[in-house]
Each structure stands twice: as structure tokens, then as C-alpha cells.
Amino acid sequence: MSARHVERRPHCCLRGKGFVRIQCGELGSMEVGPRARVYAEVVPEVLDVAVKEFAGTEEMIQVGEKLFRPYDWERFDLLVLPPSFPYGGMENPRMVFLTPTMIKGDTSGVQVVAHELAHS
């Protein structure tokens, strides 16, 4: 969604490394919109706070679609990783990986979600 002139390829023809990411653990999830779900450890203080922090995800998708074009993927899910994850966020098709340091309780961490959305 971040450029006006994009070479379009069918999704089945994506090239490159890193299109498969696997996260395992005791995860829970909650919807934050019709196309977005937050996944996090099944620890109430992590999942519940993450859901509140990222509740505006669908609105971000809609703003991006108005500015650029329809979102290419069916879903834009968020996975809050353990504190050892070394980056703020990492975009992947259909799912963004986030460090729990993005959960600040005041929605100031959502700018990282918007940034990763622009990449995907």
C-alpha cells in the first residue's frame, strides 16, 4: 500500500526468502476488526492490553486503502512475541510480528503497526 506504481504478480508467484514464519507457544487471540486479530501469550495482562492497544487496526487498513489501493491480503493479523524479539515490528504477508514493548497502554505503539501495514 506504500507506492503508487507497483509491479503486480499473483500471490502464488512471490519470490524471495522468508515467506513462511512459524511461532509456537501457548497463544490466545481476539478479534480487533473484521480483518484483524491479535495473537499473544495466554497471559491476560498481555493479550487484553494488546487488544486495547491495537483496537484501531481496521481503521488503519481503511485509511491506507483510501490513500493507495485495496489491501492485497484477506487478513492483517498481529502477533505479540516474547520480550526477546529484537525488533519493534516485522511485516509478513497477513501477519505482523511485534515486540511487547509496543504495548504502552496509551496507543502510542500503533505507529509501528501503521508502519508495518505500509510494508505489507
Structural commentary:
With 120 residues, the chain is an alpha/beta fold. The protein is 26% helix and 21% strand. The protein has helices spanning 44-53, 57-67, 110-119; strands at 27-33, 36-41, 77-80, 89-92, 95-98. Helix 2 (57-67) crosses helix 3. The model has no long low-confidence stretch (mean pLDDT 82).
Identify the notable features of this structure and list them briefly.
alpha/beta, globular, five-stranded mixed sheet, 26% helix, single chain, 120 residues
Q: Can you describe this structure in just a few lines?
A:
With 120 residues, the protein is α/β, with parallel strands linked by helices.
Name the shape in a single word: globular
Tally of individual helices: 3
Distance between the termini: 7 Å
Taking all Cα atoms into account, the compactness measure Rg is: 14 Å
Mean pLDDT: 82
> Beta-sheet strand percentage?
15-25%
Query: In which range does the helix fraction lie?
Result: 25-40%
Flag low-confidence runs: none
Structural class, from secondary structure content?
A: alpha/beta
- Give, in order, the helices and strands: EEHHEEEH
Topology:
Blueprint: E1 27-33, E2 36-41, H1 44-53, H2 57-67, E3 77-80, E4 89-92, E5 95-98, H3 110-119
Parallel strand pairs: 2-3, 3-5
Antiparallel strand pairs: 1-2, 4-5
GO molecular function: metallopeptidase activity; zinc ion binding
Domain Peptidase M1 membrane alanine aminopeptidase: 58-120
Protein name: Peptidase M1 membrane alanine aminopeptidase domain-containing protein
